[in-house]
């Protein structure tokens, strides 16, 4: 898997956690890109559709930063929601140094 950035492609290491289930039925796949920890997530809504979100974290301890993005489109499958969140991460961290 590779993420596109402004000046080429960045290789993405294997996911740190292939799949982690959280309470509230959230599934996420976390991996590192440079200094960023990327977590695309999906959550099944009350209607049965899946909502996508994305966490981009950097830093450690009191100097850490976490940005959470929740996306409007709803999806028929968990995998489609995760793929959408992953695609959105490409644009959000596109200018980062890998």
Summary of the model, kept short:
The chain is α+β, with helices and mostly antiparallel strands. The protein is 15% helix and 52% strand. It has 1 helix and 7 strands.
Please explain how this structure is put together.
The chain has 98 residues and is α+β, with helices and mostly antiparallel strands. The protein is built from one helix and seven strands; from the N terminus they run βββββββα. A hairpin with a 6-residue loop joins strand 6 and strand 7. The radius of gyration is 13 Å and the shape is elongated. It starts with a strand and ends in a 6-residue tail after the last helix.
Helix content: 10-25%
Helix-strand sequence: EEEEEEEH
Share in β-strands: over 45%
Strand order of the largest sheet: 3-4-5-6-7
What does the radius of gyration come to?
13 Å
Main β-sheet: number of strands, strand sense, barrel status?
A: 5 strands, antiparallel
**For the residues shown, what is the average pLDDT?**
75
Write the SSE topology.
Layout: E1 2-5, E2 8-11, E3 17-22, E4 26-33, E5 36-44, E6 50-58, E7 65-75, H1 78-92
Antiparallel strand pairs: 1-2, 3-4, 4-5, 5-6, 6-7
């Amino acid at each position: 898997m590779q993420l596109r950035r402004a000046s080429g492609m960045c290789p993405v290491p294997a996911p740190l956690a292939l799949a982690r289930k959280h309470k509230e039925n959230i599934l996420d796949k976390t991996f590192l890109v440079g200094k960023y920890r990327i977590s695309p997530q999906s959550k099944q809504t009350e209607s049965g559709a899946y909502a996508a979100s994305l966490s981009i974290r950097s830093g450690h301890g009191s100097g850490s930063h976490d940005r959470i993005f929740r996306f409007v489109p709803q999806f028929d499958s968990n995998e489609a929601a995760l793929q959408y969140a992953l695609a959105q991460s490409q644009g959000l961290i596109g200018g980062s140094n890998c």
